[in-house]
């Protein structure tokens, strides 16, 4: 389905050619949403620049445009204002037909993309045996939302978990494992290592304190790379245990990912270095193999190399990323590659992309983007920490959201003298608590830091998940109260838009298509949050001003359609953010 804006654009294009000849085709009508609803819905601002070009008065140009503009089925008669603005007001009959059309469409009028792309999204990507921290939580939530949106638009998305499952730290971990659990290296039986983060800390202490241990750790790295059986087994044990811990979080947040960790690219690393050598891009610097690209300097202003092979022959995080780019383009056939990490890695990606470009590994039809995000801060405005100063454990953070939601809910039940089952309370607490965390993250422009505040995210008012969920619940309340079967509303029922509140709501409902289209371009899920927030507000206003169940037919059916369409839009929009709705709360 075409959005109203694109429909109008096409009509303007026709008018331009009719009025000014073929050469005027393609001129941007510069349509903007009218700032003052009294003047209409859209404004065309093209007459001013056209006037300059054609050396005519903009008002005269505007008049000529209008004379050639065929939009009577969409808008009231256009009006010229000020220096030459053309104001357009949508006709209620047009809006009624459009709302009716999206109401009977299971996709709510959202078009499938005409040219779907294969898109690789690299997100979440925590590190083995290390804490999955709030940065990974942001990457997980934002990456998942972007994936859901692009999938819904019809793209073919691969969700890649680029887990940090390789590197010299494994030497230390395996050496320590050999000391404390020697049996783990010889038997194939699974073993529970308990708290892996504590294990990491102990291994690190041992590593820092003892030179002989350090040497053993180094040898374990060599053995791991050579594929020694016992060392490999230990590595796999560590990975499996971490994987199980990550999975708990993924299950809780309903996240689907395909694991393709750093180790996956090991066999492809020598070729990266070889090809860079053959291209004449490699420079040896202090025994390390480097690539220099213009525009990257260190603090002293000296050229900053990207090291692809260290003096000891080992490869880097960057080498793996270069191999991954090649794999995603050549093997996966990705036309867009999206990396979701904190903005602290912006330089890393910029440099890796620049090297890949210089090596001609990124064909012209492939787009490669870093999607950066800011820090999660505590209410003190500093990086989020526990009271004792440790990094916050994700599991604890999510549990706390659920516990607080439960407390709020229980207070509310007492106040409303409501009785609910334990099952109901548990479910509502989980859904609302987790939704609140996801929504708080997604509703911010991802580039900025955001303050993690349970009080704010759980508030029933404002741009929060509970507010949105309430609007949905409200419609379900109407359904139950009126015994309405929304799936089988009278097929002949018309949409009638009379009051302002109805018109305002209808216009907003018709904008989802455009909002989603823009997210396909700029990958800013907060646009959807803003859209849903305004939708909930407009719905609540409509609901306060327009009786639904008590209205006379045919208004009653029309308002029921608006209610149902609002609920389905909320469900769809929240679903694209990875947020589930509730029938009651
Ligand atoms: N494991 C990395 C970290 O925790 C993130 C990986 C991001 N993806 C990538 N292809 N480098 O910071």
UniProtKB/TrEMBL annotation:
SMART domains per the UniProt record, alphabetical: Arg_tRNA_synt_N (SM01016), DALR_1 (SM00836)
Principal cellular location given in the protein's record: cytoplasm
Keyword Ligase attributed: yes
Domain named Arginyl tRNA synthetase N-terminal: residues: 6-90
Pfam families documented for this protein: Arg_tRNA_synt_N (PF03485), DALR_1 (PF05746), tRNA-synt_1d (PF00750)
Record GO biological process: arginyl-tRNA aminoacylation
Subcellular location, record wording: Cytoplasm
Placement of sequence motif 'HIGH' region: 126-136
Swiss-Prot/TrEMBL catalytic activity: tRNA(Arg) + L-arginine + ATP = L-arginyl-tRNA(Arg) + AMP + diphosphate
Keywords, comma-separated and alphabetical: Aminoacyl-tRNA synthetase, ATP-binding, Cytoplasm, Ligase, Nucleotide-binding, Protein biosynthesis
GO cellular component, one term: cytoplasm
Source species, domain of life: Bacteria
PROSITE patterns linked to this entry: AA_TRNA_LIGASE_I
Iron keyword on record: no
Every DALR anticodon binding domain range: 468-585
EC number: 6.1.1.19
GO terms of molecular function: arginine-tRNA ligase activity; ATP binding
Entries under InterPro entries matching the protein: aa-tRNA-synth_I_CS (IPR001412), Arg-tRNA-ligase (IPR001278), Arg-tRNA-synth_N (IPR005148), Arg-tRNA-synth_N_sf (IPR036695), ArgRS_core (IPR035684), DALR_anticod-bd (IPR008909), Rossmann-like_a/b/a_fold (IPR014729), tRNAsynth_Ia_anticodon-bd (IPR009080)
Similarity-based family: Belongs to the class-I aminoacyl-tRNA synthetase family.
Subunit structure: Monomer.
Name of the protein in question: Arginine--tRNA ligase
Gene name in the database record: argS
